């Protein structure tokens, strides 16, 4: 599959993103460069990193080594919680660009709202300013709940283009998905496969994998896309990297999507990272 074969989602600011991205959590150093470069060669163009992942340098180096024009990539990074004050945030955005050797980011997100610290509105004003300066094309958030979204929108009048959240079959986030859609915000999914959780072994997923001659990961990623979600998986092997991008030659029925939805659990989060209480690692 080539990059041109991957459909795109249109954002509320007029920009677009491919319907699947590459996660780079724990993908770092020269080995990380090799993994990201392999992904690029397979057709991935949306690459998701973060200052907290320590993979920004590897992302930038892989892009340079690929020989593919910068304009063909969609690079995302994220603001750590310790830099939520406006001037700190602006300097951190510049620092991320310097680390990657890029002139601009396609998407930049506030990584966590950290409501106990209550500086996320100030952080959002910094992202709005950085977008005006041309440092970022699209701005968004990650792990924001409806009340966090409304507060930054009411304060600035600027609606995030993206909200990246934990979503997988054990934590389907149906209400949050609707909240995002109601505000015209694209939902991205981190840990879209549940970090290899038991959900991959559920009978309904295995049965669908057999029916469509796909692996269980492909079934779940396709489930995300049919819900209007952009999944950001990372892959443990080159084979998984290759398979994760082959999602557009089959389609689940609505009943099958609903059957996977029923796997959701009241306490389905992987690491109990509740955005209302979680204190981000620094």
From TrEMBL:
Belongs to the aldo/keto reductase family. Residues 20-263 form the NADP-dependent oxidoreductase domain. It comes from Leuconostoc kimchii. This is Aldo/keto reductase. Keywords: NADP, Oxidoreductase.
